[in-house]
Structure prediction request, 1110 residues.
Amino acid sequence: MTSQGLYVDGVTVTFDGFRALNNLSLLVEPGELRAVIGPNGAGKTTMMDVITGKTRPDTGIVRFAARDLTKLDEAAIATLGIGRKFQKPTVFDALTVFENLELALKAPRGPIACLRWVLSGVARARIEATMEQIGLAARREDLAGLLSHGQRQWLEIGMLLMQEPELLLVDEPVAGMTDHETEQTAALLRGIAGTRSVVVVEHDLEFVRALDCRVTVLHEGSVLSEGSITHVQADPRVIEVYLGR
Amino acid sequence: MNRRLVLMLCVLALAALPAFNALPADHPLHVPDFLVSVVGKWICYAILALAIDLAWGYAGILSLGHGAFFALGGYAIGMHLMRLIGPRGVYGHPVLPDFMVFLGYTELPWYWLGFDWFAFAFLMALVVPGLLALVVGWLAFRSRITGVYLSIITQAMTYALMLAFFRNDMGFGGNNGFTDFKELLGMPLNTGATRAVLFYASLVTLVLVFWGCAHLTQTKLGRVLTAIRDAESRTRFLGYNVTRHKLFVFVLSAMIAGLAGALYVPQVGIINPSEFSPGNSIEAVVWVAFGGRGTLVGAVLGAFSVNALKTWLTSVAPDLWLIVLGLLFVIVTLLLPKGLIGLLRRRGS
Amino acid sequence: MPWLIPRGLAAALALLLFLSAPARAQEYEALLPGLAGGFAQQAETVERLGLLGDPRAIPLLQAMADARLLRLADGSLAPQQGATPPEGATLIRINNRVRGALRGALGRLQLVSPDPAERSRAAEGILRNRSAADIPLIEAALAREAQPPIRARLELALGGARLASEDVAVRREGIAALGASASPEARGQLLAARAANAELLPDIEAAIAAIDRRLQLRRAAETVFQGLSLGSVLLLAALGLAITFGVMGVINMAHGEFVMLGAYTTVVVQELCRGIPELAPWSLPLAVPAAFLVTAAIGAAMERGLIRHLYGRPLETLLLTFGVGMILQQVVRLAFGAQNREVISPDWMMGTLLLPGGVAVTQNRLWIILFALAVLLACFAAIRLTRFGLEMRAVVQNRRIAATMGIRTGRVDAMTFAFGSGLAGLAGVALSQIDNVSPNLGTGYIIDSFMVVVFGGVGSLMGTLIGAFSLGLLNKVLEPYAGVVLAKVAVLVGIMLFIQRRPKGLFALKGRAADQ
Prediction:
């Protein structure tokens, strides 16, 4: 067991008798980039929910940075350094791009701290830098609700970066993106990995190939196969699941 | 800038009322007594509206029980006013209020101790609603009770309190509540001077609360509350302990409501359990909705306009008031989601 | 068989005369003139008439006791009719001794009267008498009495009479008989008998303890019944909410007003039926479909006209429906007046049913429990078995796919809301039987009904059923200890604590479906 990475072992989740996760085990090293693929209903989103504290597992161990995540709530897990990007981009529509990033910025989170919060020069510079990085500097004062779908995706990734997480969970980041945007996103994620762990859930195999990383295939709530993308694609069980239907 | 000027003019216009009231009765600019006391009441309602708007408009917490916090604040000051009656009651008992003598109490219940000091009673007008909000809010927010569930729970809260306060053995005067107050801070009630003092105290409080809320909503806390209102779960995943933020604003809002109640009771001279009735709370919500929730000016505007309408209509066609109020609910939700302020702004731009 | 052993002349006479009717008739005629004799003869005659047991004597003795008995010119006796006695008639006067004899004789005679109400009154009289002399009489009456309530009173009277006996064995029998009952009066008699019966004290204490046990059981049974009754009312009021709120997610604060409209529909139907004698007894059954249709129509109109525009905005829906509720309430107040309207219950719903063990059950509440269960079954059937139910479930599960399958989702929404509103109307019919029909009838039930739905689990009829009955029972169990108001407060607080542990209620949906 590593002390820093993500360690998931024997996790089972049932909804009304349906097993969304079935004895799932997964190990992500610090700084690793990992892609998770699988057909609909394989348990990808449930896995994310369990790691980020949205869903409690019936049995099993989930550890990160030597902490038991099954005992913490979403906010505590987020402060521990796990950031999550949702499948459907969720940003705060009634706030500006700048304010969205400011809220995500790593800083004390309590109500009194927020009441007395004053934006420092360093923090402002960081927000500006991130806006440049995600290409939204020109729209800093616009309400997030006015952004296009792709821009919202980027804003959310930007918010994730502001959190300075140790582990990023990214759910279908390129859905609805153009090929060019997809390539940029792959480059961005590859760049982030190395200093932090990144877990990407994705359908798009081209995108996964572009990530050039270890791949985990989920099926019916457990790991079906794991290895490089070429290894996984040659695995007869994977072919069976993907093509046999 | 323009907006600030308009607000200041409004405050000045309100501040002039008691001054014109002090003019001789035959003076053309004389303002009758009833208008001063009615507007004084509306100012308290406006403070209550601000409290509701802070929780609902900014943090998305629709409480249908804010009337309970208002009433508790009123009861706290009411207890002080009852203690000040002293031996001037009908039964002439040196310590016990009339209703206690009538119900056969031999000594003051322990929870009445301290209310002979104004400072203590005033503190309790804030602390008691705050504590209730803390307990109810903590229970509700930590188990993620949101939206209509929270509304129903808070409505049940004020309903339960109403039933409880109707009981004689609670020691709060049963269904008659408190009335027949004599004085406050050495001033006899029901004189023009006292009325003016209470009026100005309410007006100053309204301005201060307005200013405080405006400041709060401009801070990062205000933005976090907006984030919680629009996407609570997302805010959690950003690492914000949503329960604590909501609790903070809910308790603050309850204390403001308590303050409004404390200013209200000396002006109307009575407090009874019907103040807890669920209908009162939801009516206050409609002031905010009608004025325009999520804007502080809207809340105040709503409180003044709906209550002005009520005062006028209940005198000319009392049977129609409830129908008009009901229609107001329908109009606000279907046609005026942003309230009067939204309408004015659309006109303006 | 102790009651066949004659104890003195009285019993012998009574028995003999019960058995030989012709002889009795002759003796009756022979005795009558004695009523007009001297006070001593009058008293003796009265006593003998009482023992004779001919019911024809009742009106005469009654008139005599009321000082209305006349001796007519032809010497016969008759009660005075009208204000003044006829020509030649004289009023028969009595003294206190005769009056005492009359009381006893009337009590005895009425015991064998053909009229059950009279027998019942007589049983009460003899119950208060508590004289050992009555034993054979009561035994004889018991032997022919068929009605359980009167039998119960007679048995109590017999126990009391035996307690007054000289004979220890008889008294012991009496104690045992009283101890076998579950009546507070028997308990009182036993308590009173303690001083005079030192030698029977252990028997008495045992009998009292036995009564106490039975009384406790009865109280428990009655609490359960009251709880079920309240539960059935809550179930009726909450069922509609379980549909509109639980299934559609539409929060309808006007639900209580729909209940109120159902009650007023009952009033109107009753008024309409009053003019037609054949229909009058059926006004309540007729009100059931009428109330359903009226409230369902108003519900459908409200859904199509207003609520539809606010789907996905629950807080706005809450305010809107509250406003509509306010309008409905005020309109009804202006149309029907603010005071309570009277609803007449049909005969078959009136009265009290005495269950074994002395548990008293009011008929109308029993009917409401049955009605609530029937409505629940109808709901299940409508949702599980009909085309409408199928479409409704389809729309709830996936609106878009249902629409692509050709289901007109808008129509289904309207019908579902109408269905839920109609159920509220049915609740109103039931409530009109036990609560005051006034414009604010509904306000008292709305919060409780929401509590039931939240407690039972949103979207589950089973949860609503169990939620309603458990809250009803809990309320009634707490009431004796805490009083009505505090019991209510305690239940509210209890629900708040309960949803700490199970935020989604008893029957929670889990997984993706629960996230909406």
Summary: The mean pLDDT of chain A is 82. Chain A has one domain: 6-243. The beta strands of chain A are 6-15, 18-28, 33-37, 59-64, 67-68, 82-85, 167-171, 197-201, 214-219, 222-227. DSSP finds ten helices and ten strands in chain A.
